[in-house]
Amino acid sequence: MSTGWGPADDVVVVGGGAIGLAIAWRARAAGLRVCVVDDAPGRGASWAAAGMLAPVTEAHYGEEPLLRLCLASAERYGSFARELEETTGVDVGYRRTGTLSVARDRDDQEALDELFDYRRGLGLECERLRGRECRRLEPALAPGIRGGVLVTGDHQVDNRALVTALLGACERAGVRLLRDRAVELIVQRDRVAGVRLRHDTLTCPTVVLSGGAWSAQLSGLPAGSAPPVRPVKGQLLHLRGAAGTGGEPALLSRNLRGLDVYLVPRADGRLVVGATVEEQGFDDRVTAGAVLELLRDAYELLPGLAELELTETVCGLRPGSRDNAPLLGGSDPEGLILATGHYRNGILLAPVTADTIAELLVTGRVPALIAGFSPRRFATAGAGP
Ligand SMILES: Cc1cc2nc3c(=O)[nH]c(=O)nc-3n(C[C@H](O)[C@H](O)[C@H](O)COP(=O)(O)OP(=O)(O)OC[C@H]3O[C@@H](n4cnc5c(N)ncnc54)[C@H](O)[C@@H]3O)c2cc1C
After folding, report:
1. Sign of CA dihedral 110, 148, 232, 370
2. CATH match for 97-154+231-320 among 3.30.9.10, 3.40.50.700, 3.30.70.980, 3.40.50.2300
3. Mean pLDDT over each residue of the chain, to the nearest integer
4. 326 lines ligand 1 (CB under 6 A)
């Protein structure tokens, strides 16, 4: 054991991606002694992601509770990013550029119109544009673009800078970071007593499990309470061109979405092109077919990208849940709190997850905002992801 006289930590956070680190930072600020365990912190899905903060553009039929949570998190992003930047000096690339979704043909246009009506019906702010108006906003768009929808409130953050800043903020705040792998939850008399790591054993009354796509692999959980979270593979590309700061103009000035592909321009000239959605278990290989498809789909929207340098191919595993919404709150045994299953919105949801889970840790009460996302909602739905 790490300490002979009782636990050194009030909380051990298993998994230091955007979710675990943000929780650790907020929980430490609330006065708790916090330890994060991760053998590769910040290098999971949070490193691979595109960093879109797009609650409106990502709003899907039947996911209204998730939409409300996403909107609540988007609202917090400005101050979250500012606080991180002030604490660490790291610019997290929070850019309020908006998102333009475009249609290449009639089928796309019909799909876009339907989504527009649905989003408008929910009272979300979005504007329908003709092809010509789209090209006025983004002159490099393909000439055939028929029309689009502009969402001025859907922004972006540089997710890699974000996890770098979160790591720095945790360190400054006095969060312990152990570069190790948690292998087993230690349970005594039906409640959490600690965590066994590969190279150590920790005693603590509370464990937050934020292991992303790997969350179900921790052993020691009571039968039936492994979180139903599975890996959903996403492949993505980084291109590089002009940054648009003097000299050549940037190819794109806001997030651009087609039906099968999205493009996210960073301030430093990178252009992120994503992403596949694949059920391939823990396979994290980049495939030639995915690169081909992503480039072809992106090229149809923005032909000028053929001139850019292809600098990186990336694969990440999204933590998918059965209803695409995160698992947030207490689980069995007592003392175990889940913060996982954020699927395609984990970067967006980091601020609201951190605030609410920290509040739960401090007060023992579930904040209303996450009451509908209890991990126990799956308890009667059978085992498996
Ligand atoms: C291609 C792609 C594009 C995406 N684009 C967006 C986007 O534009 N916007 C958005 O909001 N979201 C996006 N997402 C989703 C987002 O990346 C995830 O929802 C989010 O990163 C999940 O964060 P996390 O901290 O839960 O998981 P991760 O970042 O995967 O972190 C989990 C961490 O837990 C650690 N871990 C796991 N098990 C253990 C253990 N037993 N012991 C110790 N450590 C452990 C891992 O090492 C890892 O570091 C995208 C995802 C992908 C793959």
Report:
1. negative
2. 3.30.9.10
3. 94
4. no
Would the pTM count as exceeding 0.90?
A: yes
**Does the C-beta of 229 come closer than 6 Å to ligand 1?**
no
8 Å CB contact between 155 and 80: no
97-154+231-320 shares the fold of 1-96+155-229+322-385: no
How do the domains of the chain map onto residue ranges?
Answer: 1-96+155-229+322-385, 97-154+231-320
Q: How confident is the model at residue 241 (pLDDT cuts 50, 70, 90)?
A: confident
Question: Are 143 and 132 spatial neighbours (Cβ–Cβ below 8 Å)?
Answer: no
Task: Compute the distance between CA of residue 102 and CA of residue 100 in angstroms, rounded to an integer.
Answer: 6
From the CB of residue 337, how many other CB atoms can be counted at a distance below 10 Å? 22
pLDDT tens, residue by residue, 46-84: 999 999 999 999 888 889 999 999 999 999 999 999 999
CA–centroid distance, 226 to ligand 1, in Å, is: 18
Nearest CA to ligand 1 atom 35: 15
Q: How far apart are CA 274 and CA 278, in angstroms?
A: 12
Among the listed ranges 182-191, 235-244, 302-311, 338-347, which one has the minimum average pLDDT value?
Answer: 235-244
Q: Name the residue with tokens 């949570």.
A: 69
Residue 224 pLDDT > 50: yes
1-96+155-229+322-385, which class in CATH?
alpha beta
